[in-house]
User: Which sequence fits this backbone?
């Protein structure tokens, strides 16, 4: 299992911003909101038993700016605060002079940055080491769509992405390659684990929770007997209903 070690390969180019005084009041307020959200949402990974030690990470895009917020590398989840979240540009470079900039960002920063650069619709990225999803990734096997909750949330199977080494943008390339044009908001990176995307960080965390839930359920079901596939037209209908009817009009994905 890969942990969030302090070694990270990101852009060496000077970022467009040098400190928080460079931002308009609107962007500064958006940064504060995303910092608070990303710090708080790491607690959900612990709550749902999706991580071990300091592995895994949540990031969120800053609306209206080419920036995102991500956790520092190797820091205990108990010690994460909005102030020690790290602000980066979309090349993965830390914005100097901003809160948290004295620390190294997550070792997955380059991967997250690649996703944000190439998938402008994505507002949040999450990586976990959740047990059952990692087990499917270790086999390089997609999770088949055999339960309605999976059709609702992911619109089909959970695909497998290519094997990629942590530390540069290789993982990000694999995520984009696998999920572009795919309904699923989750990918199982081979021999590594799940990465999820969403319209914002909370949405990506929800996808991380749900992918572990379906990975566990389908694993147990297959141990007990043959899986019964859901017809594609039924998957389509379930996905459409869940994405467009279920919930409230104020939901982020609407």
Assistant:
């Amino acid at each position: 299992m890969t942990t969030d070690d302090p070694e990270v390969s990101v852009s060496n180019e000077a970022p467009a911003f040098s400190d928080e005084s460079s931002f308009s009041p609107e962007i500064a307020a958006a940064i504060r909101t995303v910092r608070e959200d990303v710090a708080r949402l790491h607690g959900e990974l612990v709550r749902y038993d999706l991580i071990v030690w300091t592995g895994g990470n949540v990031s969120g895009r800053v609306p209206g700016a080419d920036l995102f917020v991500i956790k520092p590398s190797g820091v205990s989840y108990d010690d994460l605060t909005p102030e020690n979240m790290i602000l980066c540009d979309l090349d993965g470079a830390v914005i100097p002079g901003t809160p948290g900039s004295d620390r190294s960002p997550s070792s997955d920063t380059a991967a997250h940055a690649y996703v944000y650069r190439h998938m402008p619709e994505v507002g949040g990225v999450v990586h976990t080491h959740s047990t059952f999803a990692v087990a499917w990734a270790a086999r390089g096997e997609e999770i088949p769509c055999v339960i309605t909750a999976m059709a609702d949330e992911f619109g089909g199977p959970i695909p497998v992405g290519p094997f990629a080494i942590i530390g540069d943008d290789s993982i990000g390339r694999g995520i984009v390659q696998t999920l572009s044009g795919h309904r699923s908001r989750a990918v199982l990176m081979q021999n590594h684990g799940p990465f999820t995307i969403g319209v914002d960080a909370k949405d990506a965390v929800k996808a991380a929770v749900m992918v572990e839930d379906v990975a566990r359920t389908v694993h147990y079901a297959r141990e007990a007997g043959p899986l019964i596939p859901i017809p594609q037209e039924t998957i389509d209908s379930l996905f459409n209903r869940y994405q467009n009817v279920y919930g409230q009009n104020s939901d982020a994905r609407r």
About this structure: Residues 1-9 have pLDDT under 50 and may be disordered. The first helix runs from residue 25 to 47.
